[in-house]
Amino acid sequence: MSKKKQTLTTSAGIPVADNQNSLTAGPRGPLLVQDWQLFEKHAHFNRERIPERVVHAKGSAAFGTFKVTGDITRYSKAKVFQPGTETDVLLRFSTVAGERGAADAERDVRGFALKFYTEQGNWDLVGNNTPVFFVRDPYKFPDFIRTQKRDPRSNLRSATHMWDFWSLSPESLHQVTILMSDRGLPKSYRHMNGYGSHTYSFINDNNERFWVKFHFKTRQGIECLTDAEAGEVVGGDRESHQRDLYNAIENKDFPTWRVCVQIMPEAEAETTPYNPFDLTKVWPHGDYPLIEIGELTLNRNPENYFAEVEQASFSPANVVPGISHSPDKMLQFRIFSYADAHRYRLGVNYESLPVNLPRCPVHGYHRDGRMRFDGNGGGSVNYEPNSFGGPVEDPAFREPPLSISGDADRYDHREGNDDYSQAGDLFRLMTAEQQERLFGNVARAMDGVPEEIVRRQLDHFEKADPAYAAGVAKALGLSR
Ligand code: NDP
Ligand code: HEM
């Protein structure tokens, strides 16, 4: 306590003599414009907020480790999968629809965004707590998200808009069923699974390609809230997920997930009865069993939320040698979308921010731009090719060619696509009690929705399983 305190300075380092009293003409004022320290303080304050993420604005994050326990080197040459390797990670959880101040315990999908700081660059796996998604064509993403956000006139969230869109987009049924099930409202971020959701690819040392899906199975056990329990939680604590995660880690009760993959040989994608690149579908475990590859542990809270969570940027574009993308249209568009959002939200030099900076050397030719706050490449050569020893490409990192066929066209993604079987499979694996809660959750979520829209949605439930439609209709007090 007796330690001598540091002198307060302005951001230019100039000592401040008085941080309590503005400079005024006489004790009663008015203010003097020459009190530039007062103006600087407010000018900075007025610029403290940056744009929130357009989706997944409310989030919580922690640092930790991914440890490899299995051997999948025959599928992927990625350094991050070498047996025994431990890699530092950042995991940001989020809700999707709410703004930055939204309550945590809401029925919503949860984000599960991982940054692996590997020795060959940052690998970002930007997934959710569900293995599928609401739409399968990126054209529909902004429309879908608007139905989850606020009505332009009332500024309220609109159940009518949600069910209108979903009932006109049957590909959403699988994800809607998960959202309305117990798992659509996790008790905390620690008590849910994570999924890469998309199909990605692995490339091995022989330059062979495999298709892969990532699963993160919680070791804390799945725990969920009913709508009624969530109402009570939110009434008492709007930050229940943030508090739970932060306190668990402070108390050294480190949450862990079993990391698993499903692997499909490249050629098999031609023969599966479903399109393995369709984000509204899972690969059944019976066909592609889970292979355990490692363990993910969160063990350190961020020191500063803004610097390490708000400024964190995750992008599905960031894959490292041995891991790559797939033809999934949604994934393809996400490769563009995230960096675009980061340039808007954080500025063009966002990847040099400490939380985003790779933990391996970075040798590139990007220079200048707003808020360039590192050495900007110093005096090194800034074009390529050059005769001055600048970094050069290495063909050893080339991927095997991907065979593609077909005419360029706008193909109807709903044609010949079975949107019902997997949603029905999920319904049928629920216990009678889980199904009852599903009916109640759907009925509550449909409160105030016009009957025409409700009936259109019931027709989709019917096609997944007649008992699904009957149960929801009963909960709504509607005849079928
Ligand atoms: P399995 O019986 O092998 O697996 C069922 C899966 O469903 C398990 O992963 C289980 O997760 C998960 N599950 C249970 N309840 C819910 C719920 N309310 N919301 C989301 N997931 C839940 O079946 P199949 O692989 O043949 O798939 C059958 C259905 O299971 C699919 O249509 C899909 O809806 C769902 N599912 C499948 C996944 C897959 O990758 N194959 C992944 C997740 C769901 P857990 O093991 O953690 O209890
Ligand atoms: C965040 C776009 C689909 C998971 C975001 C952001 C954008 C975006 C622009 C904000 C990024 C930022 O400001 O940092 C899209 C588009 C999609 C899509 C265009 C479809 C075409 C998905 C899917 C998943 C997903 C399918 C999961 C499988 C996430 C997560 C975040 C996020 C977890 C938050 C990342 C973080 O914690 O910073 N998305 N998204 N998105 N998205 Fe998507």
From TrEMBL:
Enzyme class, first EC level, given as a word: oxidoreductase
Top-level taxon of origin: Bacteria
Region annotation Disordered: where it falls in the sequence: 1-25
Biased composition (Polar residues): 7-24
EC number of the protein: 1.11.1.6
Pfam family, one: Catalase
Cofactor(s) listed in the protein's UniProt record: heme
Domain Catalase core: 9-392
Catalytic activity: 2 H2O2 = O2 + 2 H2O
PANTHER family for this protein: CATALASE
Family: Belongs to the catalase family.
Entry protein name: Catalase
Organism this protein belongs to: Alcanivorax xiamenensis
